[in-house]
Amino acid sequence: MNTRSETEVINRPMFIEGVWCGASDEGQLDVIDPATEATIAYVPHATTEDVDYAVKAARRALTNPSWRDMKPLAREALLHQLANLLEENADELAKLETQDNGKPISLSSQVDIPFAISIFRYMAGWSSKLEGASIPISFPGSEFHSYSIREPIGVVGQIIPWNFPLVMAAMKLAPALAAGCTVVLKPAEQTPLTALKLAELIEQAGFPPGVVNVITGPGETTGAAMVDHPGIDKIAFTGSTAVGKMIAAEAAKTVKRVSLELGGKSPAVVFSDADFDLAIPGAAEAIFLNSGQVCFAGSRLYVESKSFDKVVAGVADLASQFKLGPGCEPDTQIGPIISARQINRIDQLLQQGVSQGAEILTGGKRHGKQGYFMEPTVVAGAAPDNALLREEIFGPVLTVLPIDDLAAIPTLANDTTYGLAASIWTQDISRAHSLARQINAGTVWINCHGVIDPALPFGGMKQSGYGRENGRHALDLYTELKTVCVRI
Ligand code: NAP
Ligand code: MG
């Protein structure tokens, strides 16, 4: 059901080469509030022609002296200025994020927006710290002076998902701009509003026109046109593994650089010696934060058998107590799922899992008459081939399993095509570090889950993708290394 919202539905143009514009064929997309199912805005459906225009604008900006020759400290200051403007507009951004994505206002105002700002702050400093090296060589005959320099990779196409819209935009844009690249950014069609607000602030901060272009439209058309475009040097993508594979295959045709942050099926392992006051709420938050729509969600909970009943009862208890509701209500802890399509997919996977023998301990149902609300759900008794253990659900569904043989933990934890993250809950330091080495995941948390920081590298192993965002390694995604060798 698509209804019009009672307040005026606003047209939000996109931002190309410093100009606010609609699609060349005037096509539009509805932006939906998932708590009410009402249309809250229209955004342009960028055509292939619009993508081409944006890419060419980014290419012009790349060689425009006002950007190319900007001193590193000036670029750093510009990124800090953008962070200042984000701070000044934090309340509006949080409300917009909650309306567009559905997440609780407590989450958007205390996590999403401050974290996005901190990424710009952290990355700003790298603008002036991109050093090469002076390299001694052994080539016979002469003396040489050799060195390496890091140059911007060029025009970057960035495609991001809907679960943390502004955070994703910041994780993509900030390192690319620090490196001196120019960007065409496409937010997810479900959540374009904070990226467009960000474009407004980018304009206000004084970035030269064309350095950042924000275009809106669906992945299958607008996104695919970006991946195809020969004028884009690199695609940075966050989203599903299925789409990531398609992008890597397409990008190979023009040997575009690609970095991929994909899905996950992350294990949380709780030992009997864990501090349960930490581990029980920690395991619950690991899966239910943002209604489970988190790439690093701890969706498989392994508990040492002798503590299984206690831990599972504790987690299920918390799950049943979370307050579900529209994100705009201040006491809401769990907001809606992003879309009808997504909640139907969660429903289907749950039914499939139950038909394969899993048992629902709590939750399992949709909630309310309006909006896409899903109860936090805990499931037990899933066999190793159960869909609930194999598929990324991207919803508030936790599968719990007892472990009898502690030696089997690495094998169980690694029994997935994914390798994004894991958490280990124990007070035994040696055991924790030893297991951290044996789990194939880009991030392993010990006695915590979901600690994401601008300084900490984040990314996947196996089919969770390649490349590391955040931290100094994010700059590797947006720079080329050039070698210069001089005969003296
Ligand atoms: P998705 O369908 O892969 O979409 C992600 C982005 O890719 C969206 O902007 C989408 O556009 C675009 N897209 C879709 N098809 C495309 C194509 N053929 N060519 C180019 N772009 C295309 O994923 P989703 O369902 O929105 O998001 C959930 C998934 O993202 C989950 O699997 C989750 O694990 C993953 N995710 C991973 C991370 C991470 O850091 N590893 C973070 C967040 C989410 P439209 O949506 O506008 O059509
Ligand atoms: Mg929306």
Please tell me about this protein's structure:
Mean pLDDT is 97; it is low at 1-6. α1 (48-63) crosses α8 (219-228). This protein has a 7-stranded mixed sheet with strand order 15-18-19-14-13-21-22, sandwiched between helices. Strands 10-9-8-11-12-24 form a 6-stranded mixed sheet, with helices on both faces. Strands 1, 2, 5 and 6 form a 4-stranded mixed sheet that branches. It folds into 2 domains: 10-262 and 465-487, 3-Layer(aba) Sandwich (Aldehyde Dehydrogenase, Chain A, domain 1); 267-453, 3-Layer(aba) Sandwich (Aldehyde Dehydrogenase, Chain A, domain 2), CATH 3.40.309. β11 (234-238), α9 (241-252) and β12 (257-261) form a beta-alpha-beta unit. It has helices spanning 48-63, 65-68, 72-88, 90-101, 105-124, 165-178, 193-205, 219-228, 241-252, 276-288, 308-321, 340-355, 387-390, 409-413, 429-438; strands spanning 3-4, 10-11, 14-16, 19-21, 28-33, 38-44, 144-152, 155-159, 182-186, 212-214, 234-238, 257-261, 266-270, 298-304, 359-362, 366-367, 373-374, 377-380, 397-403, 418-419, 421-425, 443-446, 461-462, 465-466, 479-487. The protein starts with a strand and ends with a strand. The chain is α/β, with parallel strands linked by helices and 488 residues long. Bound molecules: NADP nicotinamide-adenine-dinucleotide phosphate and magnesium ion (MG). NADP nicotinamide-adenine-dinucleotide phosphate binds next to α8 and α9.
